[in-house]
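In response to reviewer comment 3 from the previous cycle, which asked for concrete evidence that the modeling workflow produces usable outputs, we include below a single protein chain processed end to end. The sequence was submitted unchanged, and the resulting structure tokens are shown without manual editing.
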Amino acid sequence: MEAGENSNGFAASDEIREALKDFKTSGKFIIAYTDAMSQRAYSIANIANKVYVSPKGFLNGWATVLIILL
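The workflow returned the following structure tokens.
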């Protein structure tokens, strides 16, 4: 899935995340990729098995702090 900007509200984002979680239970992998990811988009993308950000890309919000700390 392309996980760039997410203009949905938190409730709609949670519904998308739950649908992805159901899809994941089928045994298939989810891979998220983006050039730039917002905090709201990360809240959906973190259900993926792998999250890739372009080397020239960035994460907005608290996700940047988590990457640095890990």
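The chain has one domain: 10-69. We consider this sufficient to address the reviewer's concern, and the full set will be provided in the supplementary archive.
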